[in-house]
Amino acid sequence: MSSHREAPEISKDPVADNTDVYAFVSPDQPDTVTLIANFIPFQNPYGGPNFYEFGDDVLYQIHISNSGTGRADISYQFRFHAKIRNDKTFLYNTGPISSITDATWNRPQYYTVTRVEDGLSRVLARNLLAPPVNVGVRSTPNYAKLAGEAIHTIGKHRKVFAGQRADGFFADLGSIFDLGTLRPFQMAHLIPSAAAMGVNGLQGSNVHTIALQVPITDLTRDGRKPTDVMDPKAVIGVYASASRQASKILDDVLGIAIWNGPHKQVSRLGNPLFNEVIVPMAEKDKWNSQAPHDDKRFAEYVTKPELAGLLPVLYPGVFPHLAAYKKPRADLAAILLTGIPKGVVPGFQNSTGPVPADLLRLNVAVPPSKSPNPLGLVAGDAAGFPNGRRVFDDVVTVELRAVAGLTIPLVDPTFKPDAATSAIKDGTSNTNSDYLTSFPYLGTPAGGYQSKPGTPAA
Predict the structure, then answer these.
(1) Res 260 pLDDT > 90
(2) Containing structural domain, residue 60
(3) How far, CA to CA in Å, does 18 sit from each of 178, 186, 210, 232, 445?
(4) Rounded distance, CA 140 to CA 442, Å?
(5) Omega within 30 of 0 (cis) for the link into 215
(6) Is 112 part of a structural domain of the chain?
(7) pLDDT tens-digit readout, 383-403
(8) DSSP-assigned beta bridge partners for residue 238
(9) Mean of pLDDT values over 411-429
(10) What is residue 453's predicted lDDT score, i.e. its pLDDT?
């Protein structure tokens, strides 16, 4: 969760594993959209001497669909390459790193940003430096400064950052995967125990972030900034992917793996938790390999989600209305596969048309909220999930309540949600460093020296 180790094969390849995707109109730069794709889940902050970094052999991409086809109309590509400055030492750094250009950092990583539209590629920037990881108080004494140096301007009102951040996603992983337990409601579970506060399973964990901030006009179908929320051209679909070349050969001379052939997608992510809790285990790897415009084959798992059938079983007597509801879940299909059409939520829509596709849909005509609510649209804050996704949105609570039936009345007024539905939650919040109020928005990663084994279970 959100998409950490969500499929059998990608769980063996963490450097290519999408964890979260965010897309929102930038609160401090409202003429721009911020796109964030995270990779490499569950990073141990003290993971030396070979600390985490992006894969030099992975093609990372953030895709925009603005034509109603579910296909990528615009793609931003990121390719990385690391260098070793001193090949006679095992050390990641040979002294304090006070700047990202310091020679004391022995393995700097550089990257190139390319924009692809209509089959035409244009390099936006080359040899940009990523920051080092947060090693500790001696090696990276002012990490916020290092991260700030790695925010690069690549054109007017365009910024990019690629590097380590605190994982901003929060969820009670230990509980939810223990037979669907929600600690605040576990007294009503089939195997009951006393109610308790949730435990954030991502506490103390870092991720690697690719963050891009671009003008809204870079992403819309006609190159304009929409002002009418009901304008179909105001809606974009977003997903991220990681791809590897088709074949892998072990080179005995170099002692490394060499990749060859065309790139093949091995991971993707649009809406949070889609592959995690909707797609059956036997099809998760297939889902990761396909593009969103082929998601029609997975629609049955959205309209009849397994979790909706499990909740009444795991919590006897708590969800009788949900248990009795046998119609296809048109509400979830709208939220996750097509976007919410006009007439469902007054004054709002984020529909991308009839093609079912797992895309994070953002209506760019909706301005940033002056009073943000982490429950987003269901709490009356149209600038939040499932209208895009901000870093602080409580997507676990929103999706749990939706699956439990809270959103059914939007498409079927005859249905009355069970009393417990509006209170269901896993009881967690962000326990990592605070979110930032400006780009790249995710907080400072946990430092290796500062962290202690066992912190995630604290």
Answers:
(1) no
(2) 10-303+359-370
(3) 23, 30, 11, 29, 18
(4) 18
(5) no
(6) yes
(7) 999 999 999 999 999 999 999
(8) 64, 360
(9) 96
(10) 81
Contacts of residue 56, Cβ cutoff 8 Å, sequence gap at least 6: 80, 81, 82, 109
- On whether residue 2 sits in a domain, the answer given is no
> Residue 40 is inside which H or E element, if any?
strand 32-43
Residue 327's CB: how many other CB atoms inside 10 A? Answer: 13
Question: Residue 34, by phi and psi: left (phi above 0), alpha (psi -120 to 50) or beta?
Answer: beta
Is 458 a residue whose pLDDT tops 70?
no
Q: Which residue has the tokens 């003008």?
A: 215
Number of structural domains found in the chain: 1
Q: How many whole angstroms separate alpha carbon 420 and alpha carbon 319?
A: 7
For the chain, state the CA radius of gyration: 22
Can you read off the two tokens belonging to residue 272?
């949070």
In a domain, 120, yes or no: yes
- Residue indicated by tokens 């629609």: 299
Tokens of 108: 């700097």
Res. 255: pLDDT tops 80? no
Residue 270 is given by DSSP the state S
Report the DSSP pairing between strands 206-215 and 159-166. antiparallel
Cα angle for residues 69, 74, 76 (degrees, 5° grid): 140
Do the beta carbons of residue 165 and residue 391 sit within 8 Å? Answer: no
In angstroms, the CA 235 to CA 89 distance is: 51
The verdict on residue 196 lying in a domain is yes
Residues paired with 203 in a beta bridge: none
Question: Integer distance in angstroms from the first to the last C-alpha of the chain?
Answer: 19
Summarised one tens digit per residue, pLDDT across range 55-110 is: 999 999 999 999 999 999 999 999 999 999 999 999 999 999 999 999 999 999 99
Gap between the Cα atoms of 307 and 300, Å rounded = 13
Rounded to whole angstroms, how far apart are CA atoms 83 and 78? 17
